[in-house]
Amino acid sequence: MELTRRHAWALTPPQAIALQRQLAAELVTDRPIDLAAVRLVAGVDVSVKAGLSRAAVVVLTFPGLEVVETVTAALPTPFPYIPGLLSFREGPALEVAFERLQRTPDVFIFDGMGTAHPRRIGIASHLGLWLNRPTVGCGKTWLFGQHAPPGPARGAWSPLVDAGQVIGAALRTRTGVKPVYVSPGHLADLPTAIELTLRCAPRYRLPEPIRRAHQAAGEF
Q: Which of 171, 175, 166 is nearest to 145 (CA)?
């Protein structure tokens, strides 16, 4: 798969923050994903252990959610752990993995955040600018923003809000199970990001693309 390389990864933390602010202005987060046209959905995850970043991208059919391609890549972790700068820690390994894809997914779901981020540019948003495809962030744990508890039933959600702006949603993908945190990445909006997440999570709390990518990143 071809990428649009936007910058070098070797930056200091202050340079990375400045770059995030610059790139955030380019994001498109009010465009509905054309779910009727989606045929392939990719899950994206990175496992960081012992100084090594192991990236995995798993491509599934949609809406059938059958795995058709899995790619992985491993690189020394180049960036320290700093909340809000995850993409600089995981991006280099993901770049290699994306380049190994033989198929081009219609949409990507990241295990991480999109606009639900202090500077509105989590890893799903940041890498969306490299992919030029709709991207969605779906985090397992809360990172940023405030929300009321969503209702207990599957499909219930509460807005995730910061400074009066809705930046994502706390979404219940299974009845009675703790929510996931969904936000647009790039070339997506919140309503269709929520719908895609639910349609990709027919059985488990995590959407199947992310669940498969998490397994692949840990196994190899």
A: 166
Q: Contact 180/173 with Cβ under 8 angstroms?
A: yes
Q: What is the CATH number of domain 13-219?
A: 3.30.2170.10
Is the omega angle on the peptide bond into residue 63 within 30 degrees of 0, that is, cis? yes
Confidence of residue 220 (pLDDT cuts 50, 70, 90): low
Question: Can you state the angle between helices 123-131 and 13-24, rounded to 10 degrees?
Answer: 70
Asked if residue 55 lies in contact with residue 46, where contact means CB atoms within 8 angstroms, the answer is yes
201-211 pLDDT per residue, tens: 999 999 999 99
CA angle (145, 150, 153) in 5-degree steps: 150
Q: Residue with structure tokens 């599934």? A: 60
Residue 159 has pLDDT above 80, yes or no: yes
CA distance 83 to 159: 22
Question: Helix or strand or coil: residue 144?
Answer: coil
Grouping H, G, I as helix, E, B as strand and the rest as coil, residue 114 is coil
Domain ranges of the chain: 13-219
User: Mean pLDDT across the chain, nearest whole number?
Assistant: 96
Distance CA 197, CA 135 (A): 11
With beta carbons less than 8 A apart as the criterion, state whether 197 and 180 touch. yes
Cα separation, 183 vs 36, in Å, equals 20
Other beta carbons within 10 angstroms of residue 8's beta carbon come to 9
Q: What is the pLDDT of residues 161-211, one digit of tens each?
A: 999 999 999 999 999 999 999 999 999 999 999 999 999 999 999 999 999
